Amino acid sequence: MDDDRDLPAGDFSSWLSGMLAALRGERSSDVPCGTCTACCASSQFVHIGPDESDTLAHLPGELLFPAPRMPAGHVLLGYDERGRCPMLGDAGCSIYEHRPRACRTYDCRVLPAAGVDPDDKPLVADRVRRWRFAYPAPADRDRHAAVLAAASALADRPDLLPGGVAASATQRAVLAVEIHDTFLHRDEATGRTAVVAPEVDEVRVAVRRRTGGGEIT
Q1: What is the pLDDT of residues 52-106, one digit of tens each?
Q2: Is 107 in contact with 19 (CB distance < 8 Å)?
Q3: pLDDT band for position 213 (50/70/90)?
Q4: Which of 9, 74, 118, 176 could form a disulfide with 67 if both were Cys (CB 3.0 to 4.6 A apart)?
Q5: Distance from C-alpha of 159 to C-alpha of 178, rounded to nearest angstrom
């Protein structure tokens, strides 16, 4: 990384709304990456679904292999001996306009949002520790606290995950964002929000609603 200065991550509630929209497929993530390519150079497997025909048409077939524990047609793009995505060139992503859905929705700010450290990925970790969210309204801090509470619950109770399968740091952080509403109560009379501790079964239902009881993608 080029320096150790803090990086503005944006207003938390605005970021959260945008992140959820990206996860629903309504938009791409809008990450102020600058020249950072940490996520492309951190030995990450990229999942590509069978419906991503445009992406698949721009990837050499020999770079892809079947995704474990997923239906036929789901594949992974690996990385080279340096841990870099093979589509990452000197000028950045060589298929940027045709990049996988996973790349379009990836936003490393989800990790500090959930208080989750990257799994043995020092380049991403360096970026993550520099992000700083803003909280212009009390609700911003409540929503962030709810995401943190959801992430903590998932870490403490891996049995809440489908099949008890361990999730990666990013998967756990994303899931915490998606189910954070379960940890947030809004008073209809006052409009105020507060973080709550839901019953385990409520969290389990929220997780199953997101994952369909299957693999976390």
Answers
A1: 999 999 999 999 999 988 899 999 999 999 999 999 998 899 999 999 999 999 9
A2: yes
A3: low
A4: 74
A5: 18
Rounded to 5 degrees, φ, ψ at 90 are: -65, -30
d(CA 41, CA 124): 9
Are the C-beta atoms of 123 and 41 separated by less than 8 Å? Answer: yes
Prediction pTM value: 0.87
Spell out the residues 6+ positions from residue 19 whose beta carbon is closer than 8 angstroms to its own.
29, 107, 109, 110, 113, 177
Phi, psi of 101 (to 5 degrees): -60, -40
Q: Which residues pair with 206 in a beta bridge?
A: none
pLDDT digits (tens, 9 = 90+) for 16-57: 999 999 999 899 999 999 889 999 999 999 999 999 999 999
**9 contacts 15 by C-beta, under 8 angstroms:** yes
- 3-state SS, 107-143, equals CCCHHHHHCCCCCCCHHHHHHHCCEEEECCCHHHHHH
Tell the residue number behind the tokens 């990384």, with chain if given: 1
